[in-house]
Amino acid sequence: MKALNDRDWGNEIESVIMGPDASLLIYTETNWKGRRMAFVSNHRVLDLDKFQMANDIESLQVECKWERKTESVDAGEYP
Fold it and tell me: Which tens digit of pLDDT belongs to each residue from 16-39?
C-alpha cells in the first residue's frame, strides 16, 4: 500500500465506508495474502480495530459495478 502517492496507507486506514456499487477485500499482507475481510456495497465499519484490522492493511481489491443508464425523453416535453 506504499505506491499511492509514496505514502504508507497501510498504517492509515482505520475505517471503511462502501458506496452503493462497490465491494472491497482488505488483506493484512502484501499481494493479497494473509487475513482478509470483505465489505459489500452500502456497508460501513467505523472502527476496524474491533476486527483487529486497523492500521494493518497491506493490500486490497476494489470492485465497482458500472451500469450505463439511458433515459428516453419525449421531444414534445421541451420547447
Answer: 898 888 899 999 898 999 999 999
| Residue-wise pLDDT tens digits, 58-68 | 888 999 887 76
pTM: 0.66
- Mapping DSSP to helix (H, G, I), strand (E, B) and coil, where does residue 75 land? helix
Task: Provide long-range contacts, Cβ within 8 A and 24+ apart, for 30-36.
Answer: 30/58, 30/59, 31/59, 32/59, 32/61, 33/59, 34/58
Burial class (CB in 10 A: 0-12, 13-18, 19+), 41: middle
Bridge partner list, 62: 24
What φ, ψ does residue 16 adopt, rounded to 5°?
A: -140, 130
